[in-house]
Amino acid sequence: MDRAACAMRDDRDPLADRRGRFALPDGVVYLDGNSLGALPHGVADRLRTVVEQEWGVGLIRSWNEAAWVDLPARVASRLAPLLGAATDELAVGDSTSVNLFKALAAARALRPERRVLLTDDGNFPTDVYVAGGLAHVRGDLEVRVVAPDEVPAALDHDVAVLALTQVDYRTGARRDAAALTAAAHEVGAVTVWDLAHSTGAIEVDLHAWDADFAVGCSYKYLNGGPGAPAYLFVARRWHEAADTPVRGWFGHARPFAFALDYEPAADARRFQVGTPHVLSTAALDTALAAFEGVSPADLDAKARSLTETFVALVDAHCGDEVEVVSPRDPAARGAQVSLRHREAYALTQALIGRGVIPDHRPPDLVRFGFAPLYVRHVDVHDAVQVLAQLLRSGDWDRPEHHRRRTVV
Q: Is residue 36 part of a domain?
């Protein structure tokens, strides 16, 4: 496929106009939106307004006059369509790891007679750490880690919670969330899904999955900015029964009554804890405007097209030098393709030096993320051309490309 054919695909792309909503630097092909999304236009202006006017002039009055207190709910209403959820099923705030702890604890408490939290070794490491921390605190919980393909067989009547990430952060492999949720429910287990590598890039439908709990971040495909607030989903059927182990005043039914007795909010807001992070939540609120009018199905279709194009071009031009480790079936992968190379770190740094930005995951993977709102097919073509040139010339194997940085 040549560049002209890629440009024709871009001309037919229903999301083509969304790229103009992002401040993408000239001369850069950005394929790392699965780690940090690009800056949407409007975010910088919004932050200046919040800092200079709402905080600088309005001071504490802005909790009411600028509706700071409503920011989490406003963001939840923007997120809900991308998740196949209702606004009252979402709590916005904290980090993904903190929300995961709350969700796992709540799910475990719903099955007090069971002792196993099941996950797999393809899960993001912090998710396994959090599960281990919960087990350490409780003392009556076993974290069982199996290979991804062993999960269905490992679901038995000892399992209280099944906790998985939908898209594998290393390979981009996509789990069948609906089928695994149904299998968990068949044995009476409660599910917790991590959607950090899904939301904003592929189709997510928590209601269709019959999901119980889910968590996710907003700084990857949702473009909320570094350290942007995370979210937590609690299915409506659990609103009365689910209890958070971390109780805070913004999870109270009447936070400004300042009662000493804790009365949880009636919906997912009971999982909010402390004062909302106004600056980062305001940035996320503005960033999510880029998704207005976009269907998750369109995001999914674009992601499949981009990743298919990338795989085809890599096979044609780089196949002898790298291995595609992501699933070949586009329905079985997220908006990500990972390549294996014996010196993946150096190759990643060489690509970055040539204006193509992916990232590296140890020991030998180069990850390419294809954010559907702003990545084009011509970007995919250009990235593979640079990759092929580096591999042919051996220019990736320079000392400066092997020099390790703190963040890989």
A: no
**Of the residues 30, 101, 124, 368, which is catalytic?**
124
**Known catalytic residue at 219:** yes
12 flagged as catalytic: no
Q: Angle CA(121)–CA(125)–CA(131) in degrees, nearest 5?
A: 85
Q: Active-site residue 102, yes or no?
A: no
0.70 cut: is pTM over it? yes
Q: What is the pLDDT along the chain (408 residues), one digit of tens a residue?
A: 899 999 999 999 999 999 999 999 999 999 999 999 999 999 999 999 999 999 999 999 999 999 999 999 999 999 999 999 999 999 999 999 999 999 999 999 999 999 999 999 999 999 999 999 999 999 999 999 999 999 999 999 999 999 999 999 999 999 999 999 999 999 999 999 999 999 999 999 999 999 999 999 999 999 999 999 999 999 999 999 999 999 999 999 999 999 999 999 999 999 999 999 999 999 999 999 999 999 999 999 999 999 999 999 999 999 889 999 999 999 999 999 999 999 999 999 999 999 999 999 999 999 999 999 999 999 999 999 999 999 999 999 999 999 999 987
Among residues 258, 291, 324, which one ends one of the domains? Answer: 291
Residues 25 and 62 in one domain: no
| Active-site hit among 269, 354, 367, 376 | 367
Pair 86, 217 in one domain: yes
Q: Are residues 202 and 239 in the same domain?
A: yes
**Is the Cβ–Cβ distance between 36 and 283 less than 8 Å?**
no
